[in-house]
Amino acid sequence: MENVDYIIVGDGYASLFFAHQLIKNNKSFVIFSDEKKSASRVSAGIINPVVLKKFTTFWKAQEQIVFLKKTLDEIEKYTGQNYLIDAPIHRIFHDENEQKLWLKKSANDDLVYFLDKNFAHLEGVKNDFNSGKVNQSARLDVNGFFMGLFDFLRNNRQIINEKFIYSTINTSDHTYKNFKYNHIVFCEGMGVKNNPFFSDIPVVPNKGHHIKVKLFQHLPENITIKKKHFLFPLNDNTYFYGGTYDREQLHYDVDASAVEQLTNGLKEFYPHNFDIEQVNFGFRPTVKDRRPIIGRHPQQPNMYVFNGLGARGILNGCYFSKSLYDFIENGIPLHDEIALKRFFPQ
Ligand SMILES: Cc1cc2nc3c(=O)[nH]c(=O)nc-3n(C[C@H](O)[C@H](O)[C@H](O)COP(=O)(O)OP(=O)(O)OC[C@H]3O[C@@H](n4cnc5c(N)ncnc54)[C@H](O)[C@@H]3O)c2cc1C
């Protein structure tokens, strides 16, 4: 029997950012990964403090960005790689009204550090009304991040490539197979619906598709273009365009209507030919009140859930992993807005 402080179930952003808290604090752990393509693996990697439809910001955006950058620096120290891509978002304006709204909003206290007042004209794409730059926005190198962290965890024998079987947990002596654990943290994304301990948490799937495209005319390397969806270069000479949002078509196949939406969206501002090389999709775990769901099981005091990261898995996953760690290890109460008990008073 091997003693571990933690078992983590799942291998997306929630899991890896929580694992980072454990690494920082010298806690022992293993991660169970079913090796399915998580929502995290297909995500765009956008780090964005602004809601680009209405030009507003959100709860703790500035704190979350600062915390993410610090965390990525810490992860770089033990994996030896930088995963932050300094490529700010440029939002293409549809018309003059949007330009005016952007300028007006850029004077607000909460947006002044995010909405750049100087508009930029972008080469290679249609942008008759120019574009606005989102200061402090960036991208995560999604592939690099997962490869780098998985390599590190594999070398330390902290990742187990098998599906976690809930019925095998022995809740009275706190064992699972040959592990004796102090705590289990469930980070399964939409997979939580199969978890008998937490299946009733109100997370709702929102299916997102992206396409990988080959562009016949290259675009600037150091920016992320936003019109309808996000467009940016990947490492292999292709570009990422996505993602869509869909709460209705939840089957496990590619949706032709999503691909059409992406194709039309890209054609709207990219005036050259392109080939679609790949289509991917995933299911965002969303919550009606747009806050994560974090907490302890009411009857099983050493079982926890970390879910509901929504469309902002990177910022939410990184920032709130520390809230969960502090809750478990230091007894610091979870903020009411993210606590599981807002749905299940204990
Ligand atoms: C197309 C698309 C684009 C997106 N773009 C962005 C973006 O640019 N920026 C951003 O911040 N967010 C983005 N998101 C949202 C983000 O991806 C999600 O918020 C995030 O992935 C959720 O992470 P998670 O760890 O909770 O779940 P997941 O990433 O789904 O990870 C959970 C993992 O646990 C595994 N698992 C479940 N049950 C078990 C079990 N019993 N045993 C073992 N393993 C198990 C699952 O198979 C899965 O691999 C995007 C999402 C999509 C779909």
From TrEMBL:
Its EC number is 1.-.-.-. The keyword Cytoplasm does not apply. Signal peptide: none annotated. Its cofactor is FAD. Keywords: Flavoprotein, Oxidoreductase. Residues 5-321 form the FAD dependent oxidoreductase domain. InterPro entries: FAD-dep_OxRdtase, FAD/NAD-bd_sf. Pfam families: DAO (PF01266). Belongs to the DadA oxidoreductase family. This is FAD-dependent oxidoreductase.
